[in-house]
Amino acid sequence: MNDNYRCVSENIRNLSLKYGTQIPRLVAVTKYQPVERILALYSLGQIHFGESKVQDLVEKASRLPKDIRWHFIGKIQSNKCKQLAKVDNLFQVESLDSEYIASELNKCLTKKINVYIQINTSGEESKNGITFDDQTTLFNMVKYIINDCNNLKFCGLMTIGHPDLDKCEKCFSILSRLRREVEKNFPEIALESSMGMSNDYHLAIKENTNQIRLGRCLFNSCS
């Protein structure tokens, strides 16, 4: 794992140099990973970890160091908001896709946390998020979070790219464009973007993403 982590970190730096972009925050995705492997990665200096299932996040967070910064990156169900809100070191929720879920999460929290709105940039029915061409819904949701959700800090947009790399590149370009549109309408907010996984993070870095979410290439093999 030490070699994988070094390899990926070097790849990220080299890609950022190649494209003249910022070095993004690395979130290590822990889906299906046991606590022991997460702890091994933590011991190498990794502090941002992401989980896509609420019950797995709750269980892992209870057994791992409290200075880990947990990101929730999966589909949020309203009946799970209370459990999610109880994670003391929950750093960020990246998959908000409706005002209703934002409201439910906001009601359950006792402290302010960072949130991203998830955008469906690929048009795939299997993907969650606000559809990329529905700017009205997106802008209304941003306004709602800012004005009505005291415990949510709106920080940016998240997407999952299409599995086809050519289409994926377009997905990331769409997210960058939407980010600029939101910034124009809400200039008081410094927006971030979260895109890029193990098979496509090079495309996300090219688009100057603030954050990438990697699992397989950290825990299995560097690519």
From TrEMBL:
Keywords: Pyridoxal phosphate. Signal peptide: none annotated. It comes from the Eukaryota. Residues 8-219 form the Alanine racemase N-terminal domain. Its cofactor is pyridoxal 5'-phosphate. One of its GO terms (molecular function) is pyridoxal phosphate binding. The modification N6-(pyridoxal phosphate)lysine is found at residue 31. Gene3D superfamilies: Alanine racemase. PANTHER family: PROLINE SYNTHETASE CO-TRANSCRIBED BACTERIAL HOMOLOG PROTEIN, PYRIDOXAL PHOSPHATE HOMEOSTASIS PROTEIN. Pyridoxal 5'-phosphate (PLP)-binding protein, which may be involved in intracellular homeostatic regulation of pyridoxal 5'-phosphate (PLP), the active form of vitamin B6. Belongs to the pyridoxal phosphate-binding protein YggS/PROSC family. This is Pyridoxal phosphate homeostasis protein.
